[in-house]
């Protein structure tokens, strides 16, 4: 009898340790994309914390959207050529970070790209290939040196310059989401802002999160590999989410500010892994424009704590050294390259 009770006890222990914690999650369309927050802690506060996150994301969208006439960014774009416009601390912080990346990358990353982005309208029904003339007229405006920022006061030095924070704002938003969850006692969560991911803490099993790196030429959910991370942002910039095709040519949404055309530096995508969401987002766009060789140099010089995986048009996968320990490559469609 004792033996039976002991066996039963073992079985109960076994099954309770296998119990899968169902996440508390919510998905909404915000920041121009589908955002999902999934919390894996066993806490009553999860739903309330998630609601708080979405409220903050909506506030951020109101401030930062280049498409909303009443946003802070639109106000700057409308008035800051003729007079100083005073921004709120948060907008100024993100813009200053964007300016840092612009300076370090020699303008490969450029928050003054707004007028050119609007010209292409990629990701909307009105996407089109602009004429060379149209691009030429606005190209000089797309230079971060036309943005002057002191404290929170902003001035634009070219009448056509338009600020666009689309390459950095979701990363900042993921940091804010993480901080709100943390403040509410959440320790395990996946924050997914349209593929801009923050993996908080560890899985309920105690193992690291497994985040798939999308095959840029595969169906959605087909990965080239899996990164194992905790408390890390995993952010990808690629040519496969927002693009349109004319006469067999693909035009995507990441613009080379020197030409005004979609960047063509031999890359299909770049994924960046970093503790900071805002840096991972800014970096992924910067590296995509720079290409793999200059991109690796940029990481070595300016972002030693970050790791990157570059997927090239000639079907190679190039990684920074530190990534080798945390990335399992599962594809046979690409060669490991240098
Ligand atoms: P990333 O590589 O991170 O960024 C690419 C985006 O950055 C481009 O879309 C462009 O906006 C900008 N960019 C292009 N080239 C450069 C460059 N060289 N340097 C710096 N920036 C560059 N999308 C909609 O379709 N409708 C909306 O109403 C809408 N509202 C949004 C509101 C907010 C607050 C934010 C943050 C985004 C919104 N978006 C909207 C999405 C946005 O337009 C971008 O498509 C998106 O942010 C791109 O993110 P990504 O991670 O795909 O690419
Ligand atoms: Mg980015």
From TrEMBL:
InterPro entries: ApbE, ApbE-like_sf. Its cofactor is Mg(2+). It is an enzyme of class 2 (transferase). It is found in: Cell inner membrane. It catalyses: L-threonyl-[protein] + FAD = FMN-L-threonyl-[protein] + AMP + H(+). Its EC number is 2.7.1.180. Keywords: Cell inner membrane, Cell membrane, FAD, Flavoprotein, Lipoprotein, Magnesium, Membrane, Metal-binding, Transferase. Gene3D superfamilies: ApbE-like domains. It comes from the Bacteria. Belongs to the ApbE family. This is FAD:protein FMN transferase. It comes from Rarispira pelagica.
């Amino acid at each position: 009898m004792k033996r039976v009770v002991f066996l039963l006890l073992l079985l109960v222990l076994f099954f309770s340790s296998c119990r899968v914690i169902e996440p508390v999650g919510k998905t909404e369309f915000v920041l121009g994309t589908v955002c999902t927050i999934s919390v894996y802690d066993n806490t009553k506060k999860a739903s309330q914390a998630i609601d708080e996150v979405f409220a903050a994301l909506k506030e951020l969208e109101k401030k930062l959207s280049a498409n909303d006439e009443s946003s802070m960014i639109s106000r700057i774009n409308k008035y800051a050529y003729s007079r100083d416009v005073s921004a709120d601390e948060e907008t100024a912080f993100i813009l200053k970070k964007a300016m840092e990346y612009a300076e370090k990358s020699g303008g490969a990353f450029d928050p003054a790209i707004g007028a050119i982005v609007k010209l292409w309208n990629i990701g909307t029904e009105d996407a089109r290939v602009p004429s060379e003339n149209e691009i030429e007229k606005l190209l000089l405006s797309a230079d971060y040196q036309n943005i002057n920022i002191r404290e929170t006061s902003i001035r634009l030095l070219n009448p056509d310059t338009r600020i666009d924070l689309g390459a950095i704002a979701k990363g900042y938003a993921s940091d804010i989401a993480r901080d709100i969850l943390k403040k509410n006692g959440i320790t395990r969560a996946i924050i997914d802002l349209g593929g801009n991911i923050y993996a908080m803490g560890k899985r309920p099993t105690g193992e690291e999160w497994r985040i798939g790196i999308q095959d840029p030429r595969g169906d959605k959910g087909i990965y080239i590999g899996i990164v194992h991370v905790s408390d890390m942002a995993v952010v990808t910039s690629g040519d496969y989410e927002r693009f349109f095709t004319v006469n067999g040519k693909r035009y995507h949404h990441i613009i080379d500010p020197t030409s005004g055309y979609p960047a063509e530096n031999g890359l299909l995508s770049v994924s960046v892994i970093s503790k900071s969401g805002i840096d991972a987002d800014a970096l992924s766009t910067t590296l995509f424009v720079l290409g793999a060789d200059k991109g690796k140099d940029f990481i070595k010089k300016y972002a030693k704590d970050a790791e990157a995986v570059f997927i090239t048009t000639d079907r190679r996968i190039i990684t920074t050294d530190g990534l080798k320990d945390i990335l399992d490559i599962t594809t046979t469609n690409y060669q490991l390259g240098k």
